[in-house]
Amino acid sequence: MKNIGIILIAVLSLVACQEKATQQPNVLFILTDDQGWGDMSSHGNEVLETPVLDQLAQDGAEFDRFFVSPLCAPTRASLLTGRYHLKTGATSVSKGLEIMDTEEETIAEVFKANGYAIGIFGKWHNGSHYPNRPTEQGFDEFIGFCAGHWTNYFDTKLDSGYVEIETKGFITDYLTDKAIDFIDRKKDAPFVCYVPYNAPHGPFQVPDKYFNKYKAKGIDDRLASIYGMVENVDDNIARLLAKLDEEGLAENTIVVFMTDNGPNGVRYNGAMKGVKGHVDEGGVRVPSIIKWPGTIAAGKKIKRLGAHIDWLPTLTELCGITYNPAKEIDGISLASTILNEEQETKERSVFTHVAFLERELKERPGSFRTNKYRYVAKGENAELYDMIADPSQEKDIAKENSVMVADFTSQYLSWFKDASQNYQPIKPISLNTNFVELPAFEAQFEGNLRFIEGHGWAHDYLVDWSSIKDEMTWLIDSDSEKEMAVYIRYTCPEDELGSKIAVSLLENSVENTVTKAFDPPMINSPDRVKRQESYEKNWAMMEIGRLKLSKGQNMIKLSTKELANKQVAEFKSLILKDI
Q1: What is the pLDDT of residues 281-308, one digit of tens each?
Q2: What are phi and psi for residue 560, nearest 5 degrees?
Q3: What percent of the chain has pLDDT over 70?
Q4: What does residue 149 show for φ and ψ, rounded to 5 degrees?
């Protein structure tokens, strides 16, 4: 009986191994934030140390020319959909311009429909409201944040679905812990584990171990912080890869690494022109690596142009998924290029565009890259560079190539017209859920109001609310008439109390007076250098009343009916809750 038991266990183990070998491959997709092409030691950076990423490139295939969008949210939207970001509705990083249209079909939805477990651990940045959040766009699990950046990286609060959770330790370490836990729980079925780290985006906070190491190399605090965050990411990628090895998943897991735009500031970037936010080569060329042991040849260098829009069709083909896009995609599958010997490099054009504000959209600061040239459009002007002879874009050859420039201009304008034809800059915020928070940085406002930080990025708030002419509005959408309780998040010192606040929609209005003082200090932030982003603080919550909401799209307005002192309050957000 004992021998029979041993034989049975052996047979079951063999069957399990065969099943694992024949199951569709898993996908571990790692994305970093503001890490440029030059932020890898194997790319010639003599200060930064990234041994894990360097080894990943040696063990897999690395693209020599891989392109993304110049900003965070547009790249993520293109990665998720296989479509140029203008078509997805995501054009910038805040004020609602980062929101990807609900109707877009995401890589998560495609893989989920084919039996995959899907998790995201990190930065989403394609919509903070229902139904634009990760769990409404195909992901089974989400831990991280939806906005463009986070305010503090140590012992912070993160989003898990619609629940706020307390975390301990450094944010990159914590997100890795959660990704490892997901892999552990989903290892017996195919999974996609998407890990979009927020490093090395500001604010510049990093554990002492990493910061001190780079300070000892004689560089300034900002660069020491950035390089420290990148090396910390490198260490955490090692942990993810070790988990795959530990569970026997490495040979059946496709690992992809890329970054979302050029570097967040001027630093080593391979002598390329441009940084984050620029449409030149340095703003959009990033590292991109794919590893699949036993299937993709180690050490391969891919010369063919690749782009963020290619990952959806490429990964579906590599995973054996039949994919019939709901909308026409712009990316192409690079599976055969990745798997086979390098064939003839096919001619291709990869387009991009950047707009920080709605008004910049039609100024067409964009470009496109062919195998040889980069065409750059800036307003009514055009530049042209031979990227083979002049990879640093030092000589604009537009004047001596007027015929080519005219043709390229026609191509770019045709692409832009097609990509932007359905763009809607102000998207309505759905009230078809039981809790909706309308943040200050998504408000349209007029009068004396201004952002405390200035840009209106995520977490920014409004101050100088000092006149009855000051108004904030949001476009909202409800599928039915309903009544909801209305609140504001605010701060107000004792000597500014007494102003009357009104919230109105069409003929309906509710009012209340600010009677409770709340004026806390800023939360201590362990920044290594002064941040550009707004600092974090706590907020009081005050009920204004109950407001009747009409069906359809309408503007909801926040204003003051009576100003008691110099300022009504500092304003963070307007909240609507089901009664």
Answers
A1: 999 999 999 999 999 999 999 999 999 9
A2: -115, 140
A3: 94
A4: -155, 170
- At residue 478, φ and ψ (nearest 5 deg) are -130, 140
High-pLDDT (> 90) share of the chain, %: 90
Task: Please tell me whether residue 496 adopts helix, strand or coil conformation.
Answer: helix
Q: Quick check: 466 pLDDT over 60? A: yes
CA distance 439 to 257: 33
Structural tokens at position 434: 């039981």
Furthest C-alpha separation in the chain: 89
| CATH number 3.40.50.1820 given to 351-420 | no
Class of 21-343 per CATH? alpha beta
Instruction: Give the residue carrying structure tokens 């609310």.
Output: 465
Q: How many CB atoms lie within 10 A of CB 392?
A: 14
The phi and psi torsions of 231 (rounded to 5 degrees) equal: -65, -35
Among positive and negative, which fits the CA dihedral 379, 385, 391, 395? negative
Average pLDDT of 6-26?
Answer: 50
How far apart CA 277 and CA 265 sit, in angstroms, is 10
495-531 pLDDT, tens per residue?
Answer: 999 999 999 999 999 999 999 999 999 999 999 999 9
Q: What gap in Å lies between CA 270 and CA 421, rounded to an integer?
A: 36
- Count of other CB atoms within 10 angstroms of residue 113: 12
pLDDT band at 325 (very low <50, low <70, confident <90, very high): very high
Of 352, 276, 235, 255, the C-alpha closest to 60 is 255
Cα distances from 31 to residues 74, 246, 282, 316, 459, in angstroms, run 14, 22, 18, 18, 22
Find where tokens 């690596």 sit: 289
Asked if 267 contacts 27 with a C-beta cutoff of 8 angstroms, the reply is no
How many Å apart are CA 19 and CA 157, to the nearest integer? 40
Buried-exposed string 561-573: b where 16+ CB fall within 10 A, e elsewhere: eebeeebbbbbbb
In terms of pTM, does the model score above 0.90?
yes
The ranges assigned to domains in the chain are: 21-343, 351-420, 429-578
Tokens of residue 306, six digits: 């690749």
d(Cα 549, Cα 346) in Å, to the nearest integer? 56
* pLDDT band, very low/low/confident/very high, at 343 (cuts 50, 70, 90): low
Q: What share of the chain is helix, strand, coil (3-state, %, to 5)?
A: 30, 25, 45
Q: Which helix (H) or strand (E) holds 569?
A: none
**Domain 429-578 architecture:** Sandwich (2.60)
Report d(CA 419, CA 353) in Å as an integer.
10
Strands 444-446 vs 381-386: parallel, antiparallel or unpaired: unpaired
Phi, psi (degrees; rounded to nearest 5) at 529: -140, 160
Collapsed DSSP state (helix, strand, coil) of residue 379: coil
- Contact between 254 and 27 under an 8 Å Cβ cutoff? The reply is yes
